[in-house]
Amino acid sequence: MTFSRRSFFQVAGAGAVGSLLVPWVSGRGLEALTLDGYIGTPERPGLADAIRLNSNENPNGPGPIALAAITSALGEANRYPRASVAALRAAVATSFRLHPDNVLLGCGSTDILRACAYAFTGPNRPLVTALPSFENPVADAKRVGARVIEVPVTGDLKLDLDAMAIASRGAGLVYLCNPNNPTSTVHGAAAIKRFVARVLQDSPATTILIDEAYHEYVDDPSYATALPLAIENPRVVIARTFSKVYGLAGMRVGYALGDPRTIAAIAAHTLSVGLNNLAAAAATAGLEAHAHIEQERVLNRAARAYTLRAFADAGYPAADSQANFLMVNLRRDAQPFRDACKRDGVLVGRPFPPLNSYVRISIGTMDEMRQAMDVSRRALSAT
Q1: What is the Rg, in whole angstroms, of the alpha carbon atoms belonging to the chain?
Q2: pTM recorded for the entire structure
Q3: Which of 7, 31, 123, 352 has its CA 20 to 30 A from that of 115?
């Protein structure tokens, strides 16, 4: 079941939605809202119904169990979410056979990443990350005056673990996104275990943050979660999210898993209550929706395989993908391709320097990917 903007307008009514938008429009102006593309004008149609392949979102939205939980939780909208957040924390712990002290909830995993940067980096504690990788930790580390060391990915778009290990000596935090966003590639469990051991031997005061946002989409048999490393070593912490396979990107629920001492150090930089009742209820219910999550994996795998094959047939093979997106090398500046796709109602990923010839394309539904490939073929021939 997909909850679209159109259905929201139908349920809430244009007047109610308009009242919700008034503070936003007052702050940024109607021109800004129009330029963002979600209202549009007679001269410039809006993009509310565009095929959105630009943010690695789950195109199917949350499952029926999560939607039912949201509806049930509406009656608690007047209450502070202490009980629902505690219930979610306990549910996450139970799902991993951990104690709640091993779990920290956040307003999306970006909240967790920010708190880790604040806790473990600073003027004398650099951040080490890949280039390109998810950018938020870089911005967060710079905000607290930390030096950032960005290690370029390899020619096959994998993290250069050897170079990152060398760069990590004396670092405050190493950010390792696995699978990596935006390159879609993954490292197996043995490689990650060797990397962690090497970093902590050479730099025992360094903390390693392993971001497993796309964990559920991985098919590579060599891959496994690094959670055992985080539980046995306080210098390792795992970040996860309900934004991807669970379809709750708009509800903002993420979490960290690790040693209680590490969790406490990160928690000092988060809000005491950073979730709301609806989000907590949806995430708690989603943890039990095992059949739904498996179906999402199946749907993503099929649409991903179709898109990989379609780009390869067009002469543009993509990197191996172990996530819900692809990284395709167009062998030329990718911006004209982005612009052409947008004109035809398909939004694709932003630039990720220095890979300026690449475009990141999120996986939508199979119907969306068929339509998007028609647009992509036209854009490729025109640019």
Answers
A1: 21
A2: 0.87
A3: 352
